[in-house]
Design brief:
The chain has 235 residues and is an alpha/beta fold. It has seven helices and six strands.
Length: 235
């Protein structure tokens, strides 16, 4: 009956380590739920590009099942590029009729690997993300499967490959800042998931940049953590 959170760190799929992020530690303190940080392979060479991270994510999920955790008590969570891997993992598990986690959390998800993010000059003035670096990371991540870059690996475009669907995914919370350059794609993603009948809680941080809760005031950060706790059915 123990709950657990799987965490996938951000870093545009090419960098990052789960213990370097404050998010898992804050969430453990707020929810008293242990976090399993998945140090998936980063796309720094063709050998570690997609599908390496997906393979690691599926293996990590089944590792938790093998430890005795019930799938319904697992929340799979990620921020930025890690959240993109989370969603790809859910879609893969659903496609192959495998066990699914009980819930998921997508925080400022990087879910459109085609967009150049240069279309909104206003957001470019405020956000911390660099469009050129994002484009480079997206290419590195998808270099083995460029045919999937605009479909499975860009779920915000709602153009999934045959056999893949949002329908049947677990309850999901999506959190993002309304001034981040991913905002347009994240809104499209939320609409597509809702349209499929999945229970979705969307939190839009007003004036928030990418992963705004890292540096947000305590009351703002506590708000998203309370919603995450609610998504996990915890006190």
């Amino acid at each position: 009956n123990q709950k657990v959170m799987m965490y996938f760190v951000g870093g545009a799929m090419v960098q990052g380590h789960p213990i370097q992020s404050p998010l898992p530690y804050v969430l453990m303190a707020k929810t008293s739920i242990p976090i399993f940080g998945v140090n998936f392979r980063k796309a720094i060479t063709p050998a570690t590009a997609f599908p390496a991270a997906l393979q690691d994510a599926v293996a990590a999920f089944y590792y938790l099942l093998a430890q005795g955790y019930s799938a319904k008590n697992i929340c799979i969570m990620g921020d930025s590029g890690g959240a993109g891997i989370v969603l790809t993992t859910l879609l893969y598990l659903r496609r192959h009729e495998l066990d699914l986690p009980g819930s998921s959390a997508l925080l400022s998800p990087f879910v459109d690997l085609v967009d150049d993010f240069l279309g909104d000059s206003e957001k470019l003035k405020y956000d911390v993300l660099n469009p050129e670096i994002l484009s480079s990371a997206a290419y590195q991540y998808t270099q083995n499967r460029l045919d999937l870059r605009a479909t499975l690996l860009s779920p915000a475009r709602d153009n999934l490959p045959e056999g893949y669907t949002f329908a049947g995914l677990p309850q999901t919370i999506i959190d993002y800042g309304d001034t981040e350059i991913f905002a347009h794609g994240i809104r499209r993603l939320a609409q597509a998931i809702k349209k499929s009948g999945v229970q979705v809680v969307v939190v839009e941080g007003k004036g928030g940049i990418h992963c705004y809760w890292y540096d947000a005031a305590e009351e703002i950060a506590s708000g998203i953590f309370r919603k995450l706790s609610s998504c996990l059915d915890t006190d």
